[in-house]
Amino acid sequence: MLEKKEGKCIVSASYGDVVMSPEDAITLLEIYSRTESYEHHTNYTTKEESHHVWDSPNLVRVASISTALYQCAKLAGKRENK
User: Fold this and answer.
1) pLDDT band per the 50, 70, 90 thresholds, residue 63
2) Mean pLDDT for the chain overall
3) How far apart are the C-alpha atoms of 21 and 25, rounded to whole Å?
């Protein structure tokens, strides 16, 4: 668990689509609406580093699926690459 400290946190998440309840999706959208984008840049030629923060575009998409489709997808599990 993260301890609450002063300042900001950088959260990195590289994931595809995830499934959650509509209530959790609303909570996630509310949280994302309050976020800013962050980038740490290193110029490897000069070894200079810079940090950048700016208003975030809306990067979250929410779509609903039926219970039947969810159950079929859950039954299929993770797709195997062949």
Assistant:
1) confident
2) 83
3) 6
pTM to 2 decimals?
Answer: 0.63
User: Locate tokens 């599990």: which residue?
Assistant: 77
Sequence-distant (6+) residues with CB within 8 A of 10 are: 38
In degrees, to the nearest 5, what angle opens at C-alpha 61 toward C-alphas 74 and 19? 20
Q: Which residue type is seen at 46?
A: T
Q: Is 22 left (phi over 0), alpha (psi -120 to 50) or beta?
A: alpha
Measured distance CA(68)–CA(3) in Å, rounded: 40
Q: Hey, where are the domains in the chain?
A: 22-76
